[in-house]
Amino acid sequence: MSRDARWDALLELVGKHGRVEVEDAATALDVSAATIRRDLDQLAEQQLLTRTRGGAVAHGVAYELALRYKKGRRAPEKRAIGRAAAELIAPGDVVGLTGGTTVTEVARALAVRADIVGEAGAAGGRPALTVVTNALNIAGELTIRPQIKMVVTGGVARPQSYELTGPLADAVLRDIALDTAVLGVNALDVVTGAYVHHEGEAGTNRLLAERARRVVVAADSTKIGARAFARVCALDRVDVLVTDAGIGDRAAELLAERGVEVVVV
């Protein structure tokens, strides 16, 4: 197992249980205790967890994996979800994108769609697509695409997700109108709605959803039927869920009964 894979697994264990013990992690990952101690020390140096005697605990109250360590998890499903969600966007639309690994795949799919690329330099200089985002990594990838008008909110950057949040981000979002908002979530409860781990991100993402005529949640099936700390929006605000085939039939039925179109890839 590579170092990055071990780090991903260790952070996943800490995120799920709130703590991890060296001996338990060594057994689970089939490596030596010395390797786990070294990994935990290095992760603690990056402030991704807090070392304790014999293990480590979650760093902070609203713990989540840093984006760079989450990107490899369920990557095929996220790419497929990204492509399907991108197909819901029409050329010329104004689309809002939150942060997150799955929404990053939506952005990448939009950037290479033939009908959008082919619209670059359309009549009157109108962009083929306008993207509004509070995610620094998405902005960085799309800024170089000449056919896409890139609008970035202000705000305070969160290193765990690269998202800008707070009053500066909200001030920009209050003055714009979106055709579609694509939300990345940490959980989607089939009754109460969409959730993320951090209350600041929830507030900014909620405003993004409020400014849109249509709200699309892009989330792999492990997020369905769960809750996280802070609610982004109620389920009746979600128009479409794009997810993978791992979603259970009952969950899909409950969402459809509540007016959510479920797109399975």
**Class from helix and strand fractions:** alpha/beta
Determine the mean pLDDT: 90
Gap from first CA to last CA:
29 Å
Helix-residue proportion:
25-40%
As laid out across the biggest beta sheet, the strand order is: 6-5-4-9-12-14-15
Radius of gyration: 19 Å
The amount of beta strand, in percent, is 15-25%
Low-pLDDT regions: none
* Largest sheet composition: 7 strands, parallel
User: So how many helices?
Assistant: 11
Order of helices and strands: HEHHEEHHEHHEHEEEHEEEHEEEHE
Based on Cα principal axes, name the global outline.
globular
Total number of beta strands: 15
What do you see in this structure?
It is a single chain. This protein has 265 residues and is of the alpha/beta class. Helix content is 39%, strand content 24%. The chain has eleven helices and 15 strands. The strands form four sheets. Strands 6-5-4-9-12-14-15 form a seven-stranded parallel β-sheet, with helices on both faces. Helix 1 crosses helix 3, helix 2 crosses helix 3 and helix 5 packs across helix 6. The longest helix has 15 residues. It is globular, with a radius of gyration of 19 Å. The two termini are 29 Å apart.
